[in-house]
Amino acid sequence: MNDPLRLGIAGLGTVGTGVVRIIRQKAALLSARAGRPVTISAVSARSRGKDRGVKLDDYAWEDDPVALAQRDDVDVFVELMGGHDGPAKDATEAAIAAGKDVVTANKALLAHHGHALALAAEDAGRVIRFEAAVAGGIPVIKALTEGLAGNDITRVMGVMNGTCNYILTRMQSAGLPYEEVFQEASDLGYLEADPQLDVGGIDAAHKLSLLAAIAFGTQVDFSAVQMEGIGAITIQDINHAADMGYRIKLLGVAQMTGRGLEQRMTPCLVPAASPLGQLEGGTNMVVLEGDNVEQIVLRGPGAGMGPTASAVMGDVMDIARGFRLPVFGQPAAGLEHAQAAGGSTPAPYYLRMSLTDKPGALAKVATVLGDAGISIARMRQYDHTGPNAPVLIVTHKAGRADLDRALEAIPRLGVVTDAPIALRIETA
Amino acid sequence: MNDPLRLGIAGLGTVGTGVVRIIRQKAALLSARAGRPVTISAVSARSRGKDRGVKLDDYAWEDDPVALAQRDDVDVFVELMGGHDGPAKDATEAAIAAGKDVVTANKALLAHHGHALALAAEDAGRVIRFEAAVAGGIPVIKALTEGLAGNDITRVMGVMNGTCNYILTRMQSAGLPYEEVFQEASDLGYLEADPQLDVGGIDAAHKLSLLAAIAFGTQVDFSAVQMEGIGAITIQDINHAADMGYRIKLLGVAQMTGRGLEQRMTPCLVPAASPLGQLEGGTNMVVLEGDNVEQIVLRGPGAGMGPTASAVMGDVMDIARGFRLPVFGQPAAGLEHAQAAGGSTPAPYYLRMSLTDKPGALAKVATVLGDAGISIARMRQYDHTGPNAPVLIVTHKAGRADLDRALEAIPRLGVVTDAPIALRIETA
Asked: CA separation (Å) from B330 to B290, B314, B316, B327?
């Protein structure tokens, strides 16, 4: 066990630089913990000249990540480039073909090509590990795949995009509209080059699809995630939800139902006093529920150099220690494609609408809801400010199809000014 | 990899029965996840005839756990008997000597004999795993040893005795005195046969000493834990702390300081809005801090059949999957005995005293504190109810030695009725 484990690192952005730094600074500690040294043979990045604040001349340089992945002196290909196609995919495939293990932080790559990559890796007797791809520094893949291996997982939930949670909690704390906080986040460099990856829920949905595959023993199926971003959430929604005892989160939920696998990444209300409700700023939280363990909640930084590099190193150390596991916890060849659940399990909903000042307006709305089989748990009407009165309704558990019927009918009543807003309430 | 992993289970209380149940109910799932079947060869318990609601006649029965541990058809000895000496220790030693791996939920055994057992196991090329010994269903040993293996751990904190947290939060929510809630907990069966294990902080201190050994790469040293139970906490303290924005928790803290390893299990104040402050009832929470990962918070059930059996099964599955690791994350032969830090790192403190109704009383107290170098951050004096007035003081960061000097001097002033109460404030 005293041969070093030799890495080839492709991508020297924040995370790659963080990994190099840890390996340089903690050589003795890592070696004591792994029972063998962990070394870097070669690195690769787009620009060779750039000063990254860390010494790189001890390592061979490759301009081409594919060439890096194929080097004889590399045992583990560490893919920190990102992107679900192009060089990251090419180099990962090349690494597997060349008989290397892979550690990656690339959620997009695995969400799109995870099953095919897992099949290839397992055919070649190699592992792909991706703790850093989900919820940054939180060892959630490990907890789910290994720690909870004695459970049938019943539900996985989480706030897994720190930027969205920053925007939503900052809107509330500063009383600012979405557009303004979005601009702030952009100025602070919190947003991806394509902001839809964040605020459209795509990045978080990538992560959810990976957790769902492990949790339910199915092929990763990103395309089946019901996805809705936070762009339509107003400061009024946030304040009204708070008045009713809730917070709004971009919440991912995956659960196996009688109708198939339900995967949702949508804005939801959660109780203000719940762990999810109390989550502020860019922090991530994942809730794992199993038939034996009941509920485990994991909370930590979802991004940043240190936390993400910590997750990459967890995977590297596992490989150094000889831990070998199928990519998604069970052999990929045996994973089935889960039928996607149409719709979503019944839940309480929060409805907001703006009533015109006409007698009987509220009664009409209530009648339509009742006719659709939706019963009202709580209702709050605010003072008219101008000609309209905001009305908030919390329903009892309702099916989404019934709700949609009512939501379609309400505007035709002539007593609301805009289409009603409906947000699911997810309870822990 | 298709040979079954064969268990011998000693102890068929709640947890042992839970483990048997999982292995019977989930044979196919466990086999798919581990790549091999997990089976039970033999079991052992004090009473053979007792109906445990689970079928046992498929397994050989041993009256003597030592004989169980030595059986040829046992690969892993699962020790769920408890007790830090006697049969649990004898059988664990016998298992190691017979070349078996060990999975145990026994925190007392490992807190007292963990280093010697680890040396013996590693000499024999065997592993001892103990996820279930710390914080029930939360995979915290795994997170710390494996997930955060790329970090220097800076601090480990936690609420790790659900009974104490139940008592403290129930006192607050119901406004009841300690004695009454202690009796309730006793009636509900929440307390160990020797309640000092719970309310004296011993059980939680066992757990802390195990986490500290892993976190700081030192020999487990339970005897060095500074320990104080919750028996002296009054409903007044809880209410006053709440007034100042805090909750009282039996909090374990381990950190490496310039003076050596500090291990404390004592009642502390934590901010009411922090994750620790918000922890209600019997739930456990562990906070792991590392130089790269910053802070990870893990929350989950600290006891019970399902959660504890889940943790045992996580260990069993790791062994079935071929994961092998030194008992405390690094070879025991290389672990040093950490010098115990005398005293504790400076911190803000909460002080409560009862002032007599004399002019200048408060000034005298403030002067003594000032003379000891302790500055006051916040102070609150309540109305006199009777002849005395409760006074609460939150200090700025103070050394415990300075504080103790002041606490000794204050009663000699003749202006307080009882010895002042001082509780450390631990901030996240």
From this structure: 17, 20, 20, 7
- Across the interface, whether the CB atoms of A298 and B297 are under 8 A apart is answered yes
**Fold of the CATH domain A140-301:** Dihydrodipicolinate Reductase; domain 2 (3.30.360)
DSSP sequence for A344-405: ---B-EEEEEEEES-TTHHHHHHHHHHHTT--EEEEEEPPPBTTEEEEEEEESSB-HHHHHH
> Under a CB-based contact definition with an 8 Å cutoff, are residues B358 and B415 in contact?
yes
Q: How far apart are CA A180 and CA A191, in angstroms?
A: 14
Q: What are phi and psi of A286, to 5 degrees?
A: -125, 135
Distance CA A365, CA B93 (A): 72
Q: Which residue in B has a C-alpha nearest to residue A130's C-alpha?
A: B147
Binding-site residues of A for NADPH, in ranges, read 107
Q: What is the largest CA-CA distance in chain A?
A: 82
Contact A139 B137 (CB under 8 A): no
Is residue A217 classed exposed, middle or buried when 0-12, 13-18 and 19+ CB atoms within 10 A define those classes? buried
CB A163 within 8 A of CB A282: yes
DSSP states of A147-191 as a string? ITTTS-EEEEEEE--HHHHHHHHHHHHHT--HHHHHHHHHHTT-S
Which residues in chain A are closer than 8 Å to B309, comparing Cβ atoms? 150, 292
Name chain A contacts of B131, Cβ cutoff 8 Å.
147
pLDDT tens track for A260-312: 999 999 999 999 999 999 999 999 999 999 999 999 999 999 999 999 999 99
| pLDDT tens readout for residues B340-364 | 998 889 999 999 999 988 888 999 9
Angle, CA of A274, A164 and A137, to the nearest 5°:
75
Which residue in B89, B100, B142, B207 is the catalytic one?
B207
What are A286's strand-pairing partners?
A: A158, A298
Beta strands in A243-327 (DSSP E): 246-257, 260-271, 283-290, 294-301
Domain range summary for chain A, segments of one domain joined by +: 5-104, 140-301, 349-425
* Nearest residue in chain A measured CA to CA from B132: A147
How close is the nearest chain A Cα to the Cα of B125, in Å?
13
What tokens does B202 get?
């011993």
CATH number of B5-104: 3.40.50.720
Q: Tell me if ipTM is over 0.90.
A: yes
CA distances A239 to A67, A169, A200, A235, B385, Å, are 54, 11, 22, 6, 41
Which of these is catalytic: A100, A142, A207, A249?
Answer: A207
CATH classification for the domain delimited by B349-425, as one of 3.90.190.20, 3.30.70.260, 1.20.120.910, 3.40.50.1980: 3.30.70.260
- The distance of Cα A93 from the centroid of its chain, to the nearest Å, equals 24
Pairwise CB contact (< 8 Å): A139 & B296 = yes
Q: Which residues on neighbouring strands pair with residue B157, listed in sequence order?
A: B253, B287
For B148-301, CATH gives: 3.30.360.10
Q: Are strands A5-10 and A38-44 parallel, antiparallel or unpaired?
A: parallel
Query: Considering only CB atoms, which chain A residues are within 8 Å of B137?
Result: 292-294, 296
Q: How far from A12 is each of A17, A52, A291, CA to CA, in Å? A: 5, 8, 41
For B8-39, how does the pLDDT look when each residue is reduced to its tens digit (9 = 90+)? 999 999 999 999 999 999 999 999 999 999 99
Alpha-carbon distances of A416 from A239, A359, A408, A424, rounded to whole Å: 20, 12, 12, 21
* Residue A87 near residue A67 (C-beta atoms within 8 A): no
Structural contact between residues B247 and B277, judged by C-beta atoms closer than 8 angstroms: yes
Out of A217, A293, A324, name the one closest to residue B137 (CB).
A293
